[in-house]
Amino acid sequence: MPLKFEKNIYLEKLEKLMEYDLSSKTPSFAYVNMDGVSQSWVLISVIATPYILWLLFKLRKLGWLMSFFFFVLAPFCYNYFMVTSSNAGILVWAITLLNWAVFLFLLKSSYKNWREPYFKNKPGADFE
Fold first, then answer.
1. Which of 103, 85, 110 minimizes the C-alpha distance to 45?
2. Confidence (pLDDT) at 26
3. pLDDT for 68-97, tens place per residue?
4. How many CA atoms lie within 13 A of 18 on its CB side?
């Protein structure tokens, strides 16, 4: 008997967003206009990141939100307000970008375990 899971629309939206593959749609265009492709990837990430954060908030994954704040947003703000050297700024931007990519990789590898099983007879149902 297969295990059934409770339906969670926010988790399904996150799964749809994380599993969407856009890489196969850009290679032929990338050779013509590399700068436009990189700008489109930045635009997609600027739009998708707040949506991912909103879905994490709706799923009540506050640990993930705090880790995004400390590992991605804090270095970004530090670089924007505190760093004056251009070389150090480039290094902090690279660290921020790397942290963002690691955050998305870890999120993609762990959101599949967040589903809650649906039991016909829940534990403690005999006492209700």
1. 103
2. 56
3. 999 888 988 888 888 888 888 888 888 888
4. 21
Rounded to 5 degrees, what are φ and ψ at 5? -120, 150
Average of per-residue pLDDT across 56-60: 90
The two structure tokens encoding residue 89: 């700024």
Q: Residue 119: how many CB atoms within 10 A of its CB?
A: 11
pLDDT > 70? residue 127 = no
Tokens found for residue 2? 């297969």
Contact (Cβ atoms closer than 8 angstroms) between residue 4 and residue 114: no
Beta strands in the chain (DSSP E): none
DSSP, collapsed to helix, strand or coil, labels residue 117 as strand
Q: What is the pLDDT of residue 69?
A: 92
3 state SS of 115:
coil
CA 83 to CA 108: how far, in whole Å? 31
Two structure tokens written together for 3? 């295990």
Q: Kindly report the length of the chain.
A: 128
d(CA 60, CA 54): 10
Question: In the Cβ-directed half-sphere of 58, how many Cα atoms lie within 13 Å?
Answer: 13
